[in-house]
Amino acid sequence: MSTTATREVLFDVVADMHAPELYQPMAVAEGVDHFSDIGPEQVAFYKENGYLVVRKAFNPQEIQAAIDGLVALIMGSRPDFTHVYFEGKAKKILSSLGPEQRQDAVRKIGMFIEFDARLKAISHHPEFLEAIKPLMGGASAEMFQDMALIKPPRLGREKPWHQDKAYFEYALNTPVVGTWIALDEATIENGCMQIMPGRHKEGPILHFQRRDWQICDNTMLGQKSVAVPLKPGGLLFFDGMLPHGTPHNSSPNRRRALQFHYAPVGTMKVEAAERLKHFGAEGKNVTC
Ligand SMILES: O=C(O)CCC(=O)C(=O)O
Fold first, then answer.
1. What atom in ligand 1 is closest to the CA of residue 156?
2. Which domain holds residue 20?
3. 85, 165, 186, 231: most buried, per Cβ within 10 A?
4. What's the CA-to-centroid distance between 37 and ligand 1, angstroms?
5. pLDDT at 285
6. Within 6 Å (CB) of ligand 1, which residues are found?
7. CA-CA distance, 22 to 25, in Å (whole number)?
């Protein structure tokens, strides 16, 4: 992903539009309603399929508080918070936008939990952390990445197919659990998550720097995915090796989400070279 800075405002540079055939869901993800519904059967499902949905993980008050926290940070509630990345397409018009319009020019926000207690309350929600444990083989979960991913109406662009472990400096066998929480209703039209169930077991897939650091389009074209539409407060747990992506937001509706990643407490990082040995494609005599 390429990012440029202009007068302290960060922009995520515009990428090409994806081919529609890259996102062809054939089914909708399965799940349970509450954290308390997760038992051995659901843990086995997660291990087998690489994902698990909790449809009503957070209540409307918790989600509204998180949205308020996010919007406050975008509006500049904390001048010392700088990790707001605007869509490249908004570069020319950003200074003329009002507060509400400015929100719809944001692509993503990161490293925010220490800047807003309402957001930290979600990432460190006790029931949530407890639910991650069995997915990690019983280890206590430690959050190592926090992001808010925003797809503004019509403007929000694709996150191409990838495996999250291609981004993280952890040994390949680390049980990384990704979590994705819908703040707005996430639909196929506004760019909800799409996943390839079971394919986390296939191991690392080579990634290429194209529209982003991603799996080659040719590898994914025509593959049937499973869509993960969620109501606000719905949550997707997904394995760090599960191929996933989100298409462009072609709808008039916002799609805001939180994404937190967890690893077992105390997991040591490895060198980037270790990660690239598995995922780095350029230089391996392969083409994309
Ligand atoms: O929310 C999205 O659009 C995609 C998030 C994602 O897969 C990622 O950032 O790794």
1. 3
2. 3-279
3. 186
4. 26
5. 66
6. 149, 159, 164, 191, 244, 246, 257, 259
7. 9
Q: How many C-beta atoms surround the C-beta of residue 67 within 10 A? A: 18
Instruction: Give the rounded percent of residues in the chain with a pLDDT score beyond 90.
Output: 77
The mean of the pLDDT values for the chain is 92
- Here the tokens at position 106 are 């944001």
For 10-30, write each residue's pLDDT tens digit: 766 656 789 989 999 999 998
Residue 37 within any structural domain of the chain = yes
Query: What letter represents residue 51's amino acid?
Result: Y
Question: Which CATH number is 114's domain given?
Answer: 2.60.120.620
CA of 158 to the centre of ligand 1 (A): 9
pTM above 0.90, yes or no: yes
Structure tokens at 257: 């989400």
User: Residue 242: which of 282, 277, 198 has the closest Cα?
Assistant: 198
pLDDT at 7: 41
**How many separate domains does the chain show?**
1
pLDDT band at residue 249 under the 50/70/90 scheme: very high
User: Which of 87, 161, 193, when mutated, tests ligand 1's pocket best, judged by the most ligand atoms within 8 Å of its CB?
Assistant: 193
